[in-house]
Design brief:
Number of domains: 1
Number of strands: 0
Distance between the termini: 65 Å
Radius of gyration: 19 Å
Strand content: under 5%
CATH architecture: Up-down Bundle
């Protein structure tokens, strides 16, 4: 009997608590578009001047943030873009002169997603952002 009661307690939920959690998550999602700017600023700063090991570390850290946070806040395109940039950094043997342009293409993609509020798949606009990024990486 006690076991059945415990099971029922686990399955029960408070609709008000759920509504409060959803409201809190919606507020965090709205703020994410502002928070992601810090990572964008880090990427942009890394593209100016000489691009070396130090800049690569900064780019990789920002890409890690993007790939880890985007989907959590309703922006899976940002996660995909962050993963793309993270993989690019991981595959570099050493930084080169073409790297800032490729990083900038990723920054531009993230900016489009944020500015157009392309949540979830982003529809046709999201597909175009990802296609543009793929072309820039060739």
């Amino acid at each position: 009997m006690d076991e059945e009661y415990d099971r029922q307690q686990l399955l029960a939920f408070d609709p008000e608590a759920l509504a409060n959690a959803e409201f809190g998550l919606a507020k965090l999602r709205a703020k994410y578009a502002e928070w992601v700017r810090d990572d964008i600023d880090e990427l942009v700063a890394s593209c100016h001047g000489q691009f070396g090991e130090e800049e690569l570390v900064r780019v990789r850290r920002a890409a890690h943030n993007l790939k880890g946070q985007g989907e959590s806040f309703g922006y899976p395109l940002i996660t995909a873009i962050g993963q793309s940039l993270f993989d690019y950094c991981d595959n570099l043997r050493e930084p080169g002169p073409q790297d800032p342009a490729i990083i900038r293409a990723h920054v531009d993609a993230v900016l489009k997603v944020v500015e157009q509020r392309l949540t979830e798949s982003g529809g046709e606009a999201g597909s175009e952002v990802m296609n543009e990024l793929a072309r820039a990486k060739i």
